[in-house]
Amino acid sequence: MSVAKTLTSWYSINKRHLPWRETKDPYKIWLSEIILQQTQIKQGLSYYEAFTDKYPTVFDLANATESDVLKLWQGLGYYSRARNLHATAKYIVNNLNGKFPNTYEKLLKLKGIGDYTASAIASICFNEHTAVLDGNVYRFLSRYYGIDTPINTSKGFKIFKALAQDILDKDNPAEHNQAIMDFGSRQCSPTNPDCMFCLFNQTCVAFREDKILKLPQKIKAKKPVNKYFNFLVFVSDSSSTILEKRQENGIWKNLYQFPLIETKKTASLNTFQSALKNNSLTSNLDFKVSLYNEIEIVHKLSHQHLHTKFWIITTKKLPVPGIPIKNIKDYAVPVLIEKFIEEFNF
């Protein structure tokens, strides 16, 4: 039996019943694929259900405000996915009359849609013969064929894409693509793969050569940069505080945060006093300051580690217009800020 037929046979027995597998609606397939990037199914499922409940069609999503979309996305991270999701929904509604492109090449032109997502939508919704390539597929192919070319290189992409395309079941590309992803996720897992009871253990190169945990290969990423964030949590006598919308490009673009002072290293109360004197919000303000967390919170992102302290600034009157503290949970904030809000409880 071919690799493709073995995979689809396994899938017919072991298929997980998930809501996006019960539809061919490109909007819902697209939504699920964007949510599940960098996200496990058990976490992504609740977000998928929340989005399809609030925005059942691409028209509903396009008519939403970006701030509402970001708020619903809160906690998933990689917020550029949500911004691109909203922008693409608006483009599809305004420029394509609400109809998704029906080919891989056309889908690839949409904002936030790369090779993997375009392949998934094209094959699942429109039966196009185009193979998906995600982390699970990379892992299975690398181990089964014994390929040690790093997967996070352009050369690696070309090799694995061609191989995935070559073994694709042309009679049923949708079922095949979902089968190989599920097999990689559940059977050929990153750690502790179930090799002894694997359908491919007689022909798998990595199993035969004891290389299972050495594959796939990746070029190591650069070490994360350390940054030192100091958030100013204003609390006025009228129970108001200050939130600022991040305008600059970055992972938190268009999310809200407390006013921020960035320092070159961890700040003590004595050293932070001078920073407050030079800050436009506190330089001429009568206030008291206290440190909420003596031990800094280290928020780890893929490219940087944020060493974070929250400074409570109590004052009679805010230096700029603020928001009622009772409304603070209406704003889309990074998960770092969200956790503080829940713990501090104002």
UniProtKB/TrEMBL annotation:
InterPro entries: A/G_AdeGlyc_MutY (IPR005760), DNA_glycosylase (IPR011257), HhH-GPD_domain (IPR003265), HhH_base_excis_C (IPR023170), HhH_motif (IPR000445), MIG/MutY (IPR044298), MutY_C (IPR029119), NUDIX_hydrolase-like_dom_sf (IPR015797). Signal peptide: none annotated. Its EC number is 3.2.2.31. Residues 35-186 form the HhH-GPD domain. Binds 1 [4Fe-4S] cluster. Its cofactor is [4Fe-4S] cluster. Gene3D superfamilies: Helix-hairpin-Helix base-excision DNA repair enzymes (C-terminal), Hypothetical protein, domain 2, Nucleoside Triphosphate Pyrophosphohydrolase. It catalyses: Hydrolyzes free adenine bases from 7,8-dihydro-8-oxoguanine:adenine mismatched double-stranded DNA, leaving an apurinic site. SUPFAM superfamilies: DNA-glycosylase, Nudix. Keywords: 4Fe-4S, DNA damage, DNA repair, Glycosidase, Hydrolase, Iron, Iron-sulfur, Metal-binding. It is an enzyme of class 3 (hydrolase). One of its GO terms (biological process) is base-excision repair. GO terms for molecular function: 4 iron, 4 sulfur cluster binding; 8-oxo-7,8-dihydroguanine DNA N-glycosylase activity; adenine/guanine mispair binding; metal ion binding; oxidized purine DNA binding; purine-specific mismatch base pair DNA N-glycosylase activity. PANTHER family: ADENINE DNA GLYCOSYLASE. Adenine glycosylase active on G-A mispairs. MutY also corrects error-prone DNA synthesis past GO lesions which are due to the oxidatively damaged form of guanine: 7,8-dihydro-8-oxoguanine (8-oxo-dGTP). Belongs to the Nth/MutY family. This is Adenine DNA glycosylase. It comes from Formosa maritima.
